[in-house]
Amino acid sequence: MTTELDPRAAGGRRLQGKVCVVTGAGQGIGRATARRLGAEGGTIAVADRVDESAKRTVQELQDHGATALKVLADVGTFSGAQDMVTDVVAEYGRIDVLVNNVGGTIWIQPYHKYTEEQVNLELERTLYPTLWCCLAVLPVMMEQGSGSIVNLGSQSPRGLHRLPYAVGKGGIFALTKVLAMEYGSYGIRVNTVSPGGTSIPDRMTSRLHLGSGIMADEDNSEEASEYRRLMGEDIRNQQAIRRSGLPEEQASAIAFLASDDASFITGQVINCSGGQS
Prior knowledge:
The strands form two sheets. The chain has a seven-stranded parallel beta sheet with strand order 3-2-1-4-5-6-9, sandwiched between helices. Strands 7-8 form a two-stranded antiparallel sheet. The termini are far apart. The chain has helices at 28-39, 51-63, 78-92, 116-126, 128-144, 163-183, 222-237, 247-258, and strands at 19-23, 43-48, 68-72, 97-100, 147-152, 188-195, 209-211, 214-215, 269-272. The chain contains eight helices and nine strands.
């Protein structure tokens, strides 16, 4: 029954009995990942800071027979990440999989156009949530003697007009490599899926959303439109498969790395962009 959540799962039950936390699970790649892991038998903690988005994903999972828990959390702070982990462990007693999906570009422009505040906000959205969630979950996984962490990277570190975001994603690449080496002896694997341009048709929260009632300014000038055009062209030029990716395609790669099918894979950045690494 749960295979209806993602037909790509083809009846696979690789996450059966696993407690899986997916951050930013209210939309996009996070929602697709929650659906895929649920389709494969996982118990899903749907973590999101937007109640409406989290409710939608939880209801969808439950309607298809998957076990799901809504966890409202702002993982942009360490206390928020700690609260998320505490809530999931209180409910299920363990965390087997953590998918660090939260992040995303806010502004698209050359670096010299950024203000100090904008640089800080970009890093707070894209780098810190993954740092904080890993810091919060590692003691739980160490005590268990097992765990799989899958981070979300990006092709932006070799692209145009998103330098602070690219630095954040580059930091996640480094985090992946170092944590894999430091915690492999505890039975913990750490990998990253690195998407290219991905279509998000179910977006409920704008990329310009900074917080409750707070939106970043969108520059609609001709100059800003040209920056966005050049960025899009740059992404397409890196692709062999000339189309946008689907959230479900990213979720397929994430599910593989989360599962025991990848039990001897750690410290890797898997390019899922329709192009070359």
